[in-house]
Amino acid sequence: MTTTASLDAVSKHYRSVAALDRVDLALSPGITGLLGPNGAGKTTMLRVMATVLRPDAGSVRLLGRDPTDPEARTEIRRRLGYQPQELGFPRGFSAFAFVNYMAVLKEWTDRDARTAEVRRALELVGLGDVATKRISRLSGGQRRRVALAQALLGTPELLVLDEPTTGLDPEQRASLRGVLADIAASSTMVISTHQTEDVAALCNRVVVLDAGRVHFDGTVPELVSLAAGKVWMAHDPDPSALASWRTASGRHRNVGEHVPTGAKLVEPSLEDAYLLLRGARDEASHDRHTTEVAS
After folding, report:
1. Beta partners for 69?
2. Which residue ranges of the chain lie beneath pLDDT 50?
3. Which of helix, strand or coil describes residue 245?
4. What letter does residue 73 receive in the DSSP assignment?
5. d(Cα 83, Cα 104) in Å, to the nearest integer?
6. Residue 179: Cβ-neighbour burial (10 angstroms; 0-12, 13-18, 19+)
7. Who has the most CB within 10 Å: 53, 136, 165, 218?
8. pTM, two decimal places
9. What are phi and psi of 109, to 5 degrees?
10. DSSP for 130-181, written as a single string
11. How many Å apart are CA 154 and CA 120, to the nearest integer?
12. Per-residue pLDDT tens digits for 238-268
């Protein structure tokens, strides 16, 4: 498939900390989910892809263009939609006024066409009935949807979304999944999220980033398969498990490498596989540190 965005040996440092460490990634049309703990480098990666940050090393190519070239960068931004993790809103703006302002910045010069597109974007995210309401009076979830609406202007070829479902209730998240799935039929979309169920429902590809490096890159079923035979139910938490939690049934779901004899195995989820991948990495890091100290 056509590569829409690519990162080749991309690194980005903040003082002595490597937020991105020689990351290689190629994105094609469809939805890619980006998972990782806080501080993994997800937001830095998205900011690089949104042309907000320039990497310290490596090369980036977006929509067939080099973003280090000013003219190319301007053209990329015309065809790019970006929802940052935090977006500041001008004081006193309504939802419509803000998204309209962003449309002006994206060079929608025809007033009638711009107004229609702003209304379309607000309707897509379920904010048509509060379009004239001041953003300061909207809930946190509604503000997140205003931020998403501006990213959807013009149905961009490349969409970079940082935590788009944060603050949304289950019904709103389910509705938004449908919207994003429809858009991804003709766009390349990368979504950073802590919601593994959103990735399972939306994404045909998942990338796990930790400490600035890619630790998994493949399909959702491929990641889930890593937890096959390693998830079991029990009446109590298992001390040998990497993770254990109480379910709605009152029983405990346990995830770990060391499954007790006779345990009742259950079908793994994406969350189970992610926890196992994280746990295996933490154990490897601990063993490496212990070896270094001993030597």
Report:
1. none
2. 283-295
3. strand
4. H
5. 17
6. middle
7. 165
8. 0.88
9. -85, -25
10. GTTSBGGGS-HHHHHHHHHHHHTTT--SEEEEESTTTT--HHHHHHHHHHHH
11. 10
12. 998 999 999 999 999 999 999 999 899 999 9
